[in-house]
């Protein structure tokens, strides 16, 4: 993730090197640009067909239920009514739980890696965290289902119920698979991502600024609060939004631990459903109208992730620019 | 041409990674043929294929343990026959897949009706049930396991259709409600909320279960039986496939659900609590081979439109039993070799070998916890398969040995 | 004035600072605990499944007589290789060439393409599974265009995973190609070479290490993906190298075994998961070591 600094701006200012196809002086240049545009065009075509197919396949559902897909509360194949509000609520709730834990722990861990650890440990641990970010999500689902769920059901959830006196949102009987469990599995999945990207953002803040602040008598924490975090802010926020997008769209791990009940979850311990896991479970044996409704869910999900992604990337590139890398 | 040093090293690293991956693959390559069983000891000669063929099925999880075991058994003893893995995706998806010609046969617990066909056919096609043949391939029962902590070992709860209907509708919410206590006076039931487990996918097992409820207490359970997922009361958990439901019940305290009987036998944890259901004669019976066979014996004339064997009026008959079927195209949609393998396999699957000392599909089924098909149903399967025709209209099932 | 306030509050500020540093340390430990727990579970429950049968046998299904007879996963291992191999076969050329395009062109189309690639990398992969199902498995029959479906097959899975890999490779390839010092390109132009020749003979070979890293990282991500192949590759119990047939795959096998009715299969899922994690980590570690070595070389 720490790339060699390049010099695109210089190259981009020279028209000879920007690759603008001003004129094709020799046939080989035509071939060259032909191949380039061919591959890029093919990819662009695939993306366009993909987007169109999802939009078109969902049209029957929009025509049938209109916007009630978004605010309706009942999702039932039998009665042909497709209201996804509980499913959207489940998606937002699991992501919120994941972020609630992942943001403080992730940023704290990143700060520890950059500013607290000695050099050798820093390299080892940051590589470790990046490697762990590559673990496939089905493995998290397996572990969540077979190891975490029994523990939650026998220890954690009864404990939480006892401590809070079973008041909302801890009131349903503990069942193991639940909203809370899915949120926790998502938290463990996005944590390495947040730590790695935040670490990048934090380490980019120039060391001279850090030492300069220390030299005027600030304590380490004051420097972090007033110098490092503001400097890394856009990068860290970008990391968080990327992790959010991943959590919103995670399918397999969530499907294994959430109970897949499209009712409105009444507590953290109840089963629920998310957009991605609903699509995964119901797609194969859906009636044609239901397939369209699932396509509508896919569209909603795509809109959510696209917005979050676009936001995240803009903030990350702005942060890198400001730190003087580009 | 001397390559740049870094280029050489880049290619070297790629080579190392690919070698590492291949080292994993080579032992797998070595085992491309699974263990071969001795030829001809257990299958009669004419079930063999002259030319190689591969077929695949998908559908009912009710039949999945049988299909998994039977296919492996058949293909290890048959050089030219091979199967794509049976996809246990539920009856509804099985029907959809066979209509869309993605698989050679669809497994379903409920024979296909025109409604199922119209729902799933690609637009522009107009198929009818006459385009398909439905072959009964196994007989089993639907068990009602439960997981209630704190009960004494070897306690079996007795439940009636009425109480089950009320549980699934959410009217009975606690394990120690009066309704359940009245049926089980000597059992110390805890004051815990019932966690209702049902199938979340389109399921033939759901059909059999709701058919039972609708037949036994029609005034209470008014919805017609169907494969569609039931609406769960609050706190309920949806399982995917019979396996999913079994796994959920086993790991969730205070839960109750319905699964095909062989799943109870495959999951020892579920054996702790399987409910005794009160049948039409008033007897409370846990599922058993004898009970299911008795239910089947009550209806010797089974057809694709008259197939239900739930709530039968007969002593010792388990009230929630059902057949499972394989749906095939009347005119084979693939090559004739594949069609021939399909009918030979299904013919072998639906018969027992007792007649001539060989092992056939129903013997394998008995090992998996199903009840062997009664003789007249085996005959029905044979008669149905004789109707499958190939690309020139010729009958594909030409030799029958039982 | 400021100095007096500073002096007065020094003790408190130091205490707060020490407390926050400790909290950050705690956060680091908390961040590592679940990850080590997963690795521990994987090794403890999975390693005992690694025997010769596991790697060389095809799956058997347990019966009431022999509940432990489950064979192995050789079909899933080969299946993963075939599906990901075919996917890489078409994703790598398209991805690298499109990356070269992004690195060399500053047109509006290039900018739009870059944004598209960024959106596609963040997309939930299950949507690609839907796309593959509707395009390849069922076939396309609308608006006068008729594409016959192939049915369940490994190709459908490769299609989905390939589309997943292309934008990842594109972006990383663009970065690697931009990393070629512009002086090298200028030197090529000064010698009178055409742009295409420069790209083929100079830029790509110089950037090759970075490209290899990009491809390996994309491949390691593809190997672990389950959602795109959930309904498109069918199932298979035998080893087959033919992409037109149905196939098994390691991540899908984990998902199916973990939710299967057979207890021994559920436990075997740990063995498969351990294998998958080892493969992914080896590829990742290899590519990162290579990138680190490359940096030292370049200096």
Task: Note down, in words, how this protein is organized.
The complex is a heterotrimer of chains A (326), B (402) and C (299). By secondary structure, chain A is mostly helical. Chain A has a single domain, classed as Orthogonal Bundle (MetI-like fold). Chain A has 12 helices and 2 strands, in the order αααββααααααααα. Chain A has helices spanning 8-13, 27-65, 68-71, 85-116, 119-132, 137-164, 179-204, 207-215, 220-249, 252-257, 275-282, 288-322; strands at residues 75-76, 81-82. A two-stranded antiparallel ribbon of chain A has the order 1-2. In chain A, α2 packs across α12 (288-322), α5 crosses α7 (179-204) and α7 crosses α9. Chain A starts with 7 loop residues before the first helix and ends with a helix. By secondary structure, chain B is of the alpha/beta class. Chain B folds into 2 domains: 9-139 and 323-385, Periplasmic binding protein-like II (D-Maltodextrin-Binding Protein, domain 2, 3-Layer(aba) Sandwich); 142-322, Periplasmic binding protein-like II (D-Maltodextrin-Binding Protein, domain 2). Chain B has 13 helices and 15 strands. Mean pLDDT of chain B is 83; it is low at 31-42. Chain B has helices at residues 5-30, 64-76, 91-99, 114-120, 161-169, 178-183, 204-216, 241-251, 261-266, 289-297, 336-349, 361-367, 375-385, and strands at residues 53-55, 57-59, 81-83, 105-108, 132-143, 146-147, 158-159, 195-199, 237-239, 255-256, 259-260, 276-278, 284-285, 309-310, 320-329. In chain B, strands 2, 4, 5, 11, 14 and 15 form a 6-stranded mixed beta sheet that branches. In chain B, strands 6-10-8-9 form a 4-stranded mixed beta sheet, covered by helices on one side. The longest helix of chain B is centred in the N-terminal third of the chain and has 26 residues, at 5-30. Helices cover 35% and strands 14% of the residues of chain B. In chain B, β12 and β13 form a beta hairpin. By secondary structure, chain C is an all-alpha fold. Chain C folds into 2 domains: 2-49; 74-298, MetI-like (MetI-like fold). Chain C is built from 10 helices and 2 strands. Chain C has a two-stranded antiparallel sheet with strand order 1-2. In chain C, α9 runs antiparallel to α10. Chain C starts with a helix and ends with a helix. The mean pLDDT of chain C is 85. The interface between A and C is large, with 104 and 98 residues.
